[in-house]
Structures are given as C-alpha cells and as structure tokens.
Write a structure and sequence with these properties.
The chain is α/β, with parallel strands linked by helices. It contains 11 helices and 8 strands.
Length: 323
C-alpha cells in the first residue's frame, strides 16, 4: 500500500516511538478556557463535557483516546486550531476520565457508541447548531467510526462528517501488538492507570463480578477479559474485540470521513490499515503517512498546530462547506 507523502518530518520525527512519546511528555499547549457541563445519564451515572463556545453556527465534538481527557495535549491542540477556524468545540470526557470516578462499576470502552450518541443528542439540544462534526483520537476514533457505520437511526441531520486519527480498528490484533517487547512502556502505563481506576471503585466492581484478588492483569487483553468484558455485557475479551472493532463498520459509513494513520504507529498492526479496496466506500478517505507515530504528526507551525490538526481544519472546512 502506498504512503501519503504529504507529511514530511525531520530525522528524529522518523521514529514512531519518538513521535508518540515526545508530544505526550513535552508538548506545551496553551490552556483552553473550558466551561464544564455535567450531564446525567439514564442509568444513574454522569458524563462531563468541556465547552469552548464563541457562538459559531457549527460544532466540533472531540473524543479522546485510552485514559485521555479534555486536558490531553492533542485535545487542547485540536481545540485551539479548530476554534480559530470558526468552530465551537466540545470535548467529551468518557465515563471516569474527567478527574472523578464515575458512579457505576462499568466505565468507557472502545465500543461505547451509545454514550457517544447520547452526548451528540444532548449537545444539539443545548444549542441550535447547523453543522456537527466529530473528531476521534485512537480509542475515541474507533468509537466514532463504529457510531458512523453501525445500524442505527438516531444520527442527526446536522452531522456532516468526521475525522478518525490513529484508530485501532482491529482491537484484537492491537491488543496482541502491545505485547511486543518494544511496546512495554505503553502497556505498563495504560495498565497502571486502568488498574488504579479499578482500585478506586473496588467495592462497586466486586459487587458486580466478585472478588478481584484472583484477577491478575499482565496485559491489556487480561484487563479486557477480567473487567471490560464482564462489566459491559461481553462474554470475553475476544467477544468484545470482535463486536466493537471499527474495521467491520467502515464500508457502511454514509458520511465523509478522513481516516489518518501513520505506518510507523507502534500501536497499530497491519490489519489497522485497510485499503480502499477492502473498504469499498468512497466516502472514507484514507491518509496513511510514512511517519507520525500514534497521534503524533509533529511539525513546526507559526500557530503551533501539529500536522494532524492542520489536516483536520482543512478537511472539516471542506465537508462543512460542501453540504
């Protein structure tokens, strides 16, 4: 498969690990003056939304990645870039990701598209936007693609399209890929954060699935087997992966989508780069770069935008103006 060569980077940027790690540790993005809104879910839980509103007629909804939040550098960077291009922005913090444990044993996962639909319906009821676009990163990108391609009748007429950045669209293969030796740092970081959230809700979780003392997690697949699957109605981790991986939904998407990934992404195996022939859907534009890492795409820019943010601004302008 040919790479999109429109993204160029200097020597250090040709390392997928460098592109993945450096921004998360060292990128400094101006703080966003968020206005937080807490909304109650029908099952007795809550979701926190962070708004940046300048009373534009169009709204961008951002979905973060695994263990991210509205405070993550790529959410703030994308917010500032798109706000400067004439979008109101709302950052959707998944259950348990806004700095406070959620009230239920269950939490978010890669396939939580019903929560995404609930949030979309809420934000459009709150303000009369004429256009709505979605941008997801990593796990949030998988959610966005699943939402767009699954069989549902509640997608609003204001929805004009979406961007999916570094989507792990084959979850089973991604879980196995994280077990490679050179990915140990990412796996350890994710597990530490996820298990800390389990410990904070131990009594709630044990009331649902029994004692946690025997549930040892040495991999992401272990965590999904012991916690994500039983707490969210799946029979196993593999059942969860097969039912929620977004690759199977790509051919059914009926809105314009930009799928942006890098071939040197340390999180993504080969199956996360489906070809245009595999998808057979002209609405899905594939942009696979040689370099960029996982949600990286660093560049020097007078306004501090990363390349993925610049591409998103241009794509969103195109889809919003053409409908």
């Amino acid at each position: 498969m040919l790479a999109d060569d429109s993204y160029q980077t200097r020597r250090l940027g040709r390392s997928g690990h460098f592109q993945t790690i450096y921004p998360s540790l060292f990128r400094r993005v101006k703080e966003v003056p968020w206005r937080r809104e807490r909304i109650a879910t029908e099952d007795g839980d809550f979701i926190d939304l962070d708004w940046l509103v300048s009373h534009q007629p169009r709204l961008l909804l951002l979905c973060h990645g695994l263990e991210g939040s509205s405070d993550t550098h790529y959410i703030k960077g994308m917010t500032l870039a798109c706000a400067s291009a004439g979008w109101d922005v709302v950052a959707y913090n998944f259950r348990g990701c806004s700095g406070e444990p959620n009230r239920l044993a269950r939490s978010y996962h890669s396939g939580s598209s019903d929560d995404l639909a609930f949030v979309i319906n809420h934000v459009l009821a709150a303000r009369p936007y004429s256009k709505l676009a979605l941008t997801g990163f990593s796990l949030g990108a998988n959610q966005v693609l699943k939402y767009l391609g699954e069989n549902r009748d509640d997608r609003p007429s204001q929805l004009c399209g979406a961007t999916a950045i570094s989507p792990p669209c084959d979850l089973s293969a991604c879980s196995d890929h994280l077990e490679q030796a050179d990915n140990w740092l990412y796996k350890a970081r994710f597990l530490r954060s996820l298990l800390a959230k389990v410990a904070a809700k131990r009594s709630l979780i044990e009331a649902e699935i029994g004692s946690l003392s025997a549930k040892k997690c040495r991999s992401i697949r272990d965590f999904d087997e012991h916690f994500v699957a039983p707490l969210n109605g799946f029979t196993s981790a593999e059942d969860y992966y097969q039912r929620t991986s977004s690759r199977q939904f790509l051919s059914s998407i009926e809105h314009p989508v930009l799928l942006l990934s890098s071939f040197d992404d340390p999180f993504l195996p080969n199956s996360c780069y489906p070809s245009a022939v595999d998808i057979n859907n002209a609405r899905v534009r594939l942009a696979y770069t040689r370099h960029g890492g996982h949600v990286g795409f660093m560049q020097a820019h007078p306004q501090g935008w990363y390349w993925g943010e610049q591409q998103n601004v241009e794509f969103l302008e195109h889809i919003a103006s053409s409908q």
